[in-house]
Amino acid sequence: MSKPETMAKPNDFSRRDALKAGAAIASAPAILKVYAASDAVKFGVIGVGSRGSYLVDHLAKLDTGRCVALCDVNQQALDETARKVSTHPRKYKDYRELLADKDVEAVVIAVPLYLHFAITRDALEAGKHVFCEKSLVFKADEVHALRALAAEHPKQILQVGLQRRYSLYFQSVKKMIDDGVLGTVTHIHAQWHRNPGWTMKPGGKDNPKNWRLFREYSGGLMAELASHHIDVADWFFGAHPEFVVGVGGLDFWKDGREVFDNIQLIYSYPGGRKLMYSAITTCQHLPILCSQRPEFGLVVMGTAGAVEMTLGSDNALPTALWFREPEQATASASWAQAGPQKGIPIITPATQVDWNNDSFLSRESKLARRWLYDKGLMLPQEDRNPVDTELESFLSDVRSGNRPRADLEVGLADSTAVILSNIAMDENRRVYFKEIETMGLPVPPAPATAKPSAPPSPAIMKPAAAAPSTEPNP
Ligand SMILES: NC(=O)c1ccc[n+]([C@@H]2O[C@H](COP(=O)([O-])OP(=O)(O)OC[C@H]3O[C@@H](n4cnc5c(N)ncnc54)[C@H](O)[C@@H]3O)[C@@H](O)[C@H]2O)c1
To answer: Are 100 and 202 within one domain?
Structure first.
């Protein structure tokens, strides 16, 4: 019979044992899976600026794909990225030429937001599978048009770069929520706080590198930062918001930018559940996870417990702490609620001991890591950057035809939230998510006016088709 997990006693191990075991594991030869080159998905990357070039680096680690083409209007970015790719990709300055390249099966799109729709549309029409960075689209009409277009191309994969969906930590917390471990989850707090955030480069609006700061090209903090956390809230709550209210300000960076430099929003989900969101550009402190991480993270709050979590970078991978809700205090002892509380590290399968199959060293190493977590000497981290997982998953879905976790509907819901949140802040009103259903659709032609003397015809007596309403739905 296998020993249950709870019988593990990580505290029995000294720190020296831990380090010894860890070193032994680290020096064990890696087992490499070799993928047949002919099976590798031949892909091109459109837009190799900051994100595109980062994705190229991560894609290079995967033997399930082969970079055969790159595209950027900026020759320097194109040349620099091409130089680091060992597969000698063809270089294009016009994305339509890359899409006409028959060798390209799939494209990764990492251009500025205002170009996402046109390039994704053209890529689908050219028969390519698409991975497009978040936010998927920019405007309400693009939400409707992309949904219709994707329905015409059901065999092509469309994935959005919402990498939290691919994190084991985020998947584990989703399972805790679904299994009731946190009780009823009523609130999520999320933040992405930077200092100083985006800076204006010389040239203002004429410099393409400043695209994020101008409304013609960008959805601002909503599209660039909040989109990630709204997607997580939708996923964790298993629902979309009913309405959003928010305050956005352009209060601190007087450099000619047009987008807000700080935003605070509240999203109301069915059942009164709420997401509270904040993005600022004047302080990067993150008051969760023992303040060991900066900038972004979220707290998921339920009637039986809470989880603090974040996704990091290549050097600081995702992590999470679970806090069990204390026993109900009596009125006379309510002061006790201010006592210390210790977060329990949520561990990934990589640190879960398999008593039947793990080798001695593997088991010791796992227990040692858990001991370090338990002592607060180490923050438990996911073993893999979810960006690697999302890209690997995209390539695998291209081959298998499986539906991506961050698929079209996930991407469109996320874009809808971005679009409606900006409207809520711009128009200073409560915006209902149902409004997207009529927003951005062509206005039906007005019925012909009848001559005053003619008797009213049944057609004229019928009420005119409603124009898209800007009034909140009840
Ligand atoms: N998922 C994430 O965590 C994440 C992180 C960062 C950025 N992003 C997203 O990636 C996208 C790109 O952001 P970025 O930071 O790389 O911006 P960037 O400005 O650094 O890069 C954009 C690149 O696109 C190129 N480009 C512009 N027009 C083009 C065209 N018509 N054809 C080909 N190339 C063109 C530019 O020359 C530039 O090199 C954005 O949508 C952003 O939100 C996602």
So the answer is: no
Which of 382, 411, 428 is at the close of a domain? Answer: 382
CA 243 to chain centre: 20
Atom of ligand 1 nearest to the CA of 51: 16
| CATH number of the structural domain spanning residue 105 | 3.40.50.720
pLDDT in tens, 217-260: 999 999 999 999 999 999 999 999 999 999 999 999 999 999 99
Q: Which two tokens stand for residue 325?
A: 């809700």
Closest by CA position to 274, among listed 308, 246, 304, 249:
246
Domain end call among 138, 163, 188: 163
Output the residue whose Cα is nearest ligand 1's atom 11. Answer: 110
Q: What pTM does this model have?
A: 0.85
What's at 447, amino acid-wise?
Answer: P
Look at residue 328 in the predicted model and tell me its pLDDT: 61
Same domain, 242 and 356: yes
Does position 127 have pLDDT exceeding 80, yes or no?
A: yes
82 pocket-lining for ligand 1 (C-beta < 6 Å)? no
> Which atom of ligand 1 is least distant from the CA of 113?
41
Q: Which of 97, 99, 133, 170 to mutate to test the pocket of ligand 1 (most atoms within 8 A of CB)?
A: 133
pLDDT in tens, 81-120: 999 999 999 999 999 999 999 999 999 999 999 999 999 9
Q: Give me the chain's average pLDDT, please.
A: 86
* 48 CA closest ligand 1 atom index: 39
Token pair belonging to 350:
């990589």
Same domain, 301 and 361: yes
The answer to whether position 449 is within a domain reads no
Query: 3: pLDDT confidence band, cut at 50, 70 and 90?
Result: very low
Q: For the residues 379-385, what does the mean pLDDT come to?
A: 83
How many Å lie between the centroid of ligand 1 and the Cα of residue 211? 9
Give the pLDDT confidence score for residue 12 in this predicted structure.
32
Residue 316 pLDDT > 70, yes or no? Answer: yes
